Amino acid sequence: MSEKRRRRIKTAGVKAETSIELLEKVPTPTQEFTETKEEVKDDGNDFSEFYDESGEFLWEKYEATCPTQNRTHNPHIKTNNGDKVFSREAYAQELYDLMEGHSAKIKPVIQEGEIHTGVVYGVDQNFITVDIDYRELVYVKANKESEEVRALLPGEETAVLITDTKGTLGGTITGGVKHKTFMDLRAGIEEGNTAWIGQVKNMIENGGYIVRVQGVDCFMPGSLAGINKLSDFGSIVGEEIYVVPVSFSPDRGTIVVSHRKYLQALIPGAIQELKQTLGTEMTGNVTGTAKYGVFVEFNKCLTGMIHNNELDETTLAKFKSREIKPGDEIKFFVKDIISNTKITLTQKEVTSFNPWLDIQSRYTIPSVVEAKVKTKKDYGIFVNIEEGVTGLLHVSELPDNSIEDYKIGDSINVQITRIDEATMKVFLKLPK
Question: Which residues contact 254 (CB under 8 A, 6 or more apart)?
């Protein structure tokens, strides 16, 4: 979309107008010069010295004595593009700003094919007029626009594509919005922080979907249609979804969009909400199975795993007989939130008590508590402080990095140094 071009009033133009005014004041050298001279004299102006013997007006001589030649630049006036203001009147700044505002509206001739952003000026059965901050309004034929466009109200902002510059300025809002959307989508590829609502129009043979975003048909690969692989690819056709532009295909001239990237952006917020509902029975859909359990997608953007030891009897029987399929609805409880991408689930009812809700009131910093060794890693030891609360004793806090001196199930005393409720982590050291 071409940018609005602006043309400033040049100083030379102002001088030209001033010169015209001066010409009107200069008397013509005729035999009636005496009468004219007398008339001018009444105004306090006498130009007789600026005529030669032949009656020719001596412009160079006149300009040499003109008061404007003696004025100096006023550096206190804020100007643009190196302009200089010579006036020292109190209103000089205000006058300059006024002239600059006027000059901004004086633009070159608008060309067909340009996209301009403007404000709807008027709407009737025949035309929609758009003010694009130009000397003319753009006339849009209402019967050639969509219902959505015809529903626009005066004062609403829109884009318009210029289609006719002969006579009355003509354009199309539908074409303007479409082209502007395309350019905005391309610009959003690098930013990656804007989601657009689009409608999934149809599936295509080579895999993927056509998603229409404000009139622009974009391509969404099947792998970017969700957090996990869809079990029913036709299920989202016709739906409105949020997508993020991720790339541009020059061969197709198509914007590639991703619903997956939008969902990934929702995960941190969804995790925080999930922490407040631990112990509540939830419903999700199976995305796949492995020999050790079932993977479940829930709350639109979260994925968790139910270990086969955590399945109820009915589901376990179906699991063993391979009756559980992707897309199946399944009920569960959240057992533990290890990270944004690692959530353990269970079908065995868990306590509704969330130990993290008031953990700061139960443990002061620093405080020494008894804990049991849960797991050992190269970088430290994880200990259970209480049900649902695990802390890390980093290897650097152990004497001589002696991880092997500790066995799983051992009870040890640890000192709490920091509690991070957002990430559900407790940091520990050995008490002195």
Answer: 217, 218, 219, 248
> Which residues neighbour 389 within 8 Å (Cβ) at sequence distance 6 or greater?
355, 356, 359, 426
Give yes or no for a contact between 120 and 154, defined as CB atoms under 8 angstroms apart. Answer: yes
Secondary-structure percent of the chain, ordered helix, strand, coil, rounded to 5: 30, 30, 40
Pairwise CA distance, residues 69 & 46, whole Å: 19
Q: Beta partners for 429? A: 415
**Residues 246/281, Cβ–Cβ less than 8 Å:** no
User: Residue 245: enclosing H or E segment and its boundaries?
Assistant: strand 240-249
Asked if 210 and 202 touch (Cβ cutoff 8 Å), the reply is: yes
Bond before 399 cis per omega within 30 degrees: no
**DSSP notation for 341-407:** TEEEEESS---S--TTTTHHHH--SSEEEEEEEEEEETTEEEEEEETTEEEEEEGGGSGGG-GGG--
Q: Are 99 and 115 in contact (CB under 8 A)?
A: no
Matching CATH number, 192-262, of 3.30.1300.10, 3.40.50.300, 3.50.50.60, 2.40.50.140:
2.40.50.140
Read off the pLDDT of residues 336-376 as tens digits, 9 standing for 90 and up: 887 888 898 999 876 555 677 667 778 888 888 888 888 88
Interatomic CA distance for residues 308 and 302, integer angstroms: 19
Structure tokens that stand for 209 in this block: 């979907």
Class of domain 115-178: mainly beta
- Which class is domain 359-429? mainly beta
End-to-end CA distance of the chain: 68
- Angle 267-270-273 (CA atoms, 0-180°, nearest 5)? 155
- Does residue 234 contact residue 203 with C-beta atoms inside 8 Å? yes
Two tokens, residue 35: 């009468």
**3-class secondary structure, 118:** strand
pLDDT digits (tens, 9 = 90+) for 22-58: 233 333 333 333 333 333 333 445 667 877 888 787 7
**Beta carbons within 8 Å of 114's beta carbon, 6+ residues apart:** 1, 2, 161, 162
Token code pair at residue 315: 């589901």
Q: Is the pTM of this model over 0.90?
A: no
CATH 3.40.50.300 fits 277-346, yes or no: no
Burial class (CB in 10 A: 0-12, 13-18, 19+), 172: buried
